[in-house]
Structure formats: C-alpha cells, structure tokens
Amino acid sequence: MSYQVIARKYRPSDFDDLIGQEHVKNTLDNAITQRRIAHGYIFAGQRGTGKTTVARIMARCLNCVEGPTANPCGKCSSCIEVVQGNAIDVIEIDAASNRGINEMRELRENVRFRPSRDHYKVFIIDEAHQITTEAFNALLKTLEEPPEWAVFILCTTESHKIPVTIASRCQQFSFRSVEFGELMERMRYICKQEGIEADED
Description:
The chain has 8 helices and 5 strands; from the N terminus they run H-H-E-H-H-E-H-E-H-E-H-E-H. Helix 3 (about 50-65) packs antiparallel against helix 4 (about 75-85) and helix 5 runs parallel beside helix 6 (about 135-145). The mean pLDDT is about 90. The chain is an alpha/beta fold. It has helices at about 5-10, 20-35, 50-65, 75-85, 100-110, 135-145, 165, 180-195; strands spanning about 40-45, 90-95, 120-125, 150-155, 170-175.
C-alpha cells in the first residue's frame, strides 16, 4: 500500500472526527437531520481551521447512499470517492486559479444538469474571495434561482470580500482557531497510532 501523508491520513471524514468548531458541527448536523439544507453556504475563517474539510464532510453527508444523513456510512462509493477527491458529483474549484467569468459560466452550465449518480451536486469553491466581480455576478444568477440539486459551499479566509449580494443568499459560518489543548490531544492520538514516541515539548 502506498504511503499516505499523515495530514491526509488523519483528516476528519465525518462530524464525529472533527475537533473544535462545535457550533458549526451542531448547526449543520441539525440542518441535515431536519432536511433543511440551504443552497449556499459560506465557511469563513483563517487557514487551517477546517473549512474545506467540513465542506467535504458536508458533501459526504448529502450524497451518502443512506443520505442525506449526519452520519455517512463511509462504505458506499460516494463516501469513499469524496475522501479520495474524485467524487463525480462533488466539484472542487480553487478560485485562486479559476476566478474568472469563463469559469463561472462553465459552472453555471454544469449546474443545469442533474447529478450523475448522487442526490446533490456539491460545488466547493476554495479561496472564494478571489473570484472577480463579473464572475461573482454570473454566480449570483445561479444562487438566485438554484436547481433543487445544487449546493454551493464557498470557503474563504476573507469573508468581507464576498459581495453582499452573494453573502445574503448564503448561510454563513465562522470557523475559529482550534484550542491549543485540543490540538495537543489530537497530536498525542496521532503519535500513538503511528508508534511515534514524543514528549510533551
């Protein structure tokens, strides 16, 4: 079996694995359980707080064969593919390099078609604040009248740069820095799992 980088190996794949962000976890958990799923979300917070990770967990919850469910099975094709990053109906876009009007027009075309296999087409847009003004306008049209199967998750470190017209159509979540004690606990767990001896320092 090929070597897997520790950061990927221990990346949380469901809400139970997530440390910190209790407020985000609980709200999303309730929304999925009650089938009150929004078409647009903004996950805002500094780097490394778990925005993209939670976006992927959300995609698993929505598209699990048993879903939408707050506890994805982790065994179906959809669950496995989301973790591997090759799920057919989960489209990840890095807005740092795909920020223009053409990319957004392409996305709008893509949205019109139903999911190939899963319940939802989930669009995860990383560094969303880097999208150009005209590209945001193109995205706005889709957010105003989204098809029932589309869910957009905009991840950003600079939420103040997201236009108000977009933000007002999305549910916003602020991700906080994880407590130092929780980080230490997680590091201890990983060291133990990997058979690494490490003192407190």
